[in-house]
Sequence to fold (183 residues):
Amino acid sequence: MKSLYQLKNCLNENNIFLCFNGPFSQKLLVEIGELLKRKMKSAEASQTTIFKVFSILVEQSQNIIRYSADKFPGEKASEDKFMSGVIAVGLEQDVYFVTAGNKIKNAEVSGLRDRLTQLQNMDRGALNKLYKEQRKNGGSLNENAAGLGLIELARKASRPFEFHFEKIDDTFSFFSIKAVTKT
Fold:
């Protein structure tokens, strides 16, 4: 990108009205969420739509905070590291979309791809049943299970989410996921 103006135009061309790239924290997530809610209210989105988009934003941000392989140290040695990623929210035609991405280890790609594919192929009833089972088990993951956050993301989305893995090098890949909800 040659200029910030070009980046802004790229975001506009892709109907993105909110975007963040860098280290994430819970505090930042709260601020982004509040900004998103205010923006959607001013656009006269329904409370249901605002809730769904906000929930998708939270789930995708939590994924970055918990699982990104891109880490920045805290200011003090005793502080937790900040996990880095990118998240964007936009509106195209009749759907809001939230897309997020972060670096992960290549060794994690296969298992994550399997879990995401499993969720893509489930209908709403099966997703609700799986969600209840995972909650009953305390949200703990076994090798063949999808995490509560991913299940919740699939439940809130209006259609199956999209995902992609792009190999960076022999150690890392970039994982991206996009979920949409109707206005």
